[in-house]
Every structure is written in structure tokens, then in C-alpha cells.
Design goal:
This protein has helices spanning about 5-15, 20-35, 40-50, 80-90, 105-115, 120-125, 125-130, 140, 150-155, 160-165, 185-195, 250-265, 270-290, 295-310, 310-320; strands at about 65, 95, 135-140, 175-180, 200-205, 220-225, 230. A five-stranded mixed beta sheet has the order 1-4-5-6-7, with helices on both faces. By secondary structure, the chain is α/β, with parallel strands linked by helices. The protein starts with a helix and ends with a helix. It has a single domain, classed as Pyrimidine Nucleoside Phosphorylase, Chain A, domain 2, CATH 3.40.1030.10. The relative contact order is 0.16. The chain is built from 15 helices and seven strands. It is globular, with a radius of gyration of 18 Å. About 45% of the residues lie in helices and about 10% in strands. Helix 3 (about 40-50) packs across helix 11, helix 4 (about 80-90) packs across helix 13 (about 270-290) and helix 12 packs across helix 13 (about 270-290). Belongs to the anthranilate phosphoribosyltransferase family. Catalyzes the transfer of the phosphoribosyl group of 5-phosphorylribose-1-pyrophosphate (PRPP) to anthranilate to yield N-(5'-phosphoribosyl)-anthranilate (PRA). Its cofactor is Mg(2+). One of its GO terms (molecular function) is magnesium ion binding.
């Protein structure tokens, strides 16, 4: 039986506050995942998490680019690259992320391999957001209430509602967001959840593969809040298609090397070109959500200039040294 928004918020509040036993938590999460969570349940869980997270201040207009994960693609870190490129376009990015759960390298792993000290990044998040226009908000540092649930989630060994909540629980309280959803068919439900929350603008995206980002290999679906679902392909943004295997990633050091080449404009291989185009495509979506670009092609052009002029590379170097 599904829960109302208020019932869900109360239930997950009890769960996060340690007022439920492990067996009941496990049974509840599995039951919801097996029947698919409703918009009201997701929004209620998000509200409960937001009420208990550690918050940081962010400049006006700050956005986040983040996905639910779990697409099984083991690809290069597109959203991490997008965050750096978009910030280099002078849009503040409060990047919420974590270590790998279902891939070989999550955003935190790759940034660490690039030289970012995650503890230092957490201590200076508000300052780097204000001075550089970017911060990495390492999820485990801002959501202490989730700590006691980690063993239960590992024991369950599959996606739960908390994977869906994560992107919408940004500690900076951003109201503009690009969110990748690993299940295209689930996007209307997720959009319904976000519409029960406070957002200035948000776009949900899903590649058909499925991917929790816009696909550079074929068509994708996207939904802007308050609007009907739409379809888009790379060529609609002036970009070529690339085979899915071209974006296959590796461990954190492998992915970090690919990101360095991307920001340096060094395009030696098909993978380098595919990574650049996937980044430009998703960066365009983020720039549209931020109100910074009018359309897909303008967004691609602006993101490309941030790379080609060395702005994104310089931003990363300043961030690592901060």
C-alpha cells in the first residue's frame, strides 16, 4: 500500500532518526523497490533527508548536475566533467556526489585521483563556491543520518528509494538542477516527486541504453518540470553520435586521465572525442536549466569554448590547489 506525502516524510524521519529496527527498515525498502515507489513517497523521503542534512551556503543561481546512478554502464565520469565545464561558464556548481556504488569510479574517486583533497574540499566548500564557482559536496559528510543505514543497504544489495533521493538532497539547497535517471520509464514518477518540492527549474534526462545522462550514442528522453516529456538525439544539438563502448571507463586513475585530456583539448582517440561530445551535450542541458543558454546548440558552443579557451582546465587546477 502506497503512502501519502506526509506519511512518507514521517516514516523516513523515523527511519533516519533510528526509531525503526533493521528488519523493518529492510522490509520497507525492499517492498517499495519491488512495486516501484510513488511520487509522494519519493518526495516525502527527500523532505525527511533534507531536514536532517548538513547545509552549506551557495551563491544565487547555483545548480547541481547529478544522477541516480545504477545504469550499469561503467562509463567515464560525465557529470563530473560537466560540473567543471559549466562552472567555467560562470554558473556556480555545487556538485553533490559520492564514491562508486555500481561503477568502478564515482565522482569522488575521480576527483581524488585528479588531486582534490576531499576533506579539504568539504572544509572549504562555501569558500570555493563563492570564489571559484564550484564545490564538491561529498555526500557522506553532509548526510550523517544515512550512516547507520549503510550496512542495511549493502545487505539489500539493490537500488532503494535512497538512490532516488540522493540527487534531490543537495546540501546547498539548489533550486535548479540537471538530474540523470537510470530508468527512462520512471522519469514521469520522479518528475512528479520534484513537482511536490521547491524548484525554479529542473530537467530529468535518461538515455535509452539506459543511461542516467543524455546519450551521445542515440536518442534520450528528457522532462523539464511542468512540461511534457520530450525526445532528443545528439544531432539535435549539432553533435555526432558515438558508439556506447567509446565511453567505457575504468578505475579512478583511468577516468582522471581521460578527464585531464578532455580539459586539455587533447583529442587523440575515439574515446576522447566521445567523452568531449557527451560532456558538451550534458553541459548544454545544465546551461539551459541555469538560464544561461537559450537552446541546445548555444549551450554546446558555450561549453566548447570553456574547454577550448582553457577556462575549465584552469578552474580545475585552481580548485585542486585551493
Amino acid at each position: 500500500m502506497s503512502l501519502s506525502l506526509k506519511e512518507s516524510e514521517a516514516l523516513f524521519g523515523r527511519m533516519l532518526d533510528g526509531d525503526m529496527g533493521d528488519a523493518e527498515i529492510k522490509a520497507t525498502l525492499i517492498e517499495m523497490a519491488e512495486r516501484d515507489e510513488t511520487s509522494e513517497e519519493i518526495a516525502g523521503a527527500i523532505r525527511a533527508m533534507r531536514a536532517r542534512m548538513v547545509r552549506v551556503s551557495a551563491p544565487e543561481g547555483a545548480i547541481d548536475v547529478c544522477g541516480t546512478g545504477g545504469d550499469g554502464a561503467h562509463s567515464l565520469n560525465v557529470s563530473t566533467a560537466v560540473a567543471i565545464v559549466v562552472a567555467a561558464c560562470e554558473v556556480p556548481v555545487a556538485k553533490h556526489g559520492n564514491r562508486a556504488a555500481s561503477s568502478k569510479a564515482g565522482g569522488a574517486d575521480t576527483l581524488e585521483a585528479l588531486g582534490l583533497n576531499l576533506d579539504r574540499a568539504a572544509e572549504t566548500a562555501e569558500q570555493t563556491l563563492a570564489d571559484l564557482g564550484i564545490a564538491f559536496l561529498f555526500a557522506q559528510k553532509y548526510h550523517p543520518a544515512l550512516g547507520r543505514l549503510a550496512p542495511i543497504r549493502r545487505e539489500i544489495g539493490r537500488r532503494t528509494i535512497f538512490n532516488l533521493c540522493g540527487p534531490a538532497c543537495n546540501p546547498a539547497g539548489v533550486t535548479r538542477q540537471l538530474i540523470g535517471v537510470a530508468r527512462p520509464d520512471f522519469m514521469p514518477v520522479y518528475a512528479g516527486a520534484l513537482e511536490l518540492l521547491v524548484y525554479d527549474d529542473a530537467m530529468l534526462v535518461a538515455g535509452d541504453e539506459p543511461l542516467d545522462e543524455l546519450s551521445i550514442s542515440g536518442p534520450s528522453s528528457f522532462i523539464r518540470l511542468g512540461q511534457p516529456p520530450e525526445r532528443i538525439a545528439p544531432e539535435d544539438a549539432g553533435l555526432p553520435r558515438h558508439p556506447p563502448e567509446a565511453l567505457k571507463g575504468g578505475d579512478a586513475h583511468y577516468n582522471a586521465d581521460a578527464l585531464r585530456r578532455l580539459l586539455s583539448g587533447t583529442l587523440y582517440t575515439e574515446q576522447d572525442r566521445a567523452y568531449r561530445d557527451a560532456t558538451l551535450f550534458n553541459a548544454a542541458a545544465a546551461l539551459i536549466v541555469a538560464g544561461h543558454s537559450k537552446n541546445w546548440r548555444d549551450g554546446v558552443e558555450e561549453a566548447g569554448e570553456a574547454i577550448d579557451k582553457g577556462l575549465a582546465k584552469a578552474l580545475l587546477e585552481c580548485w585542486v590547489r585551493f
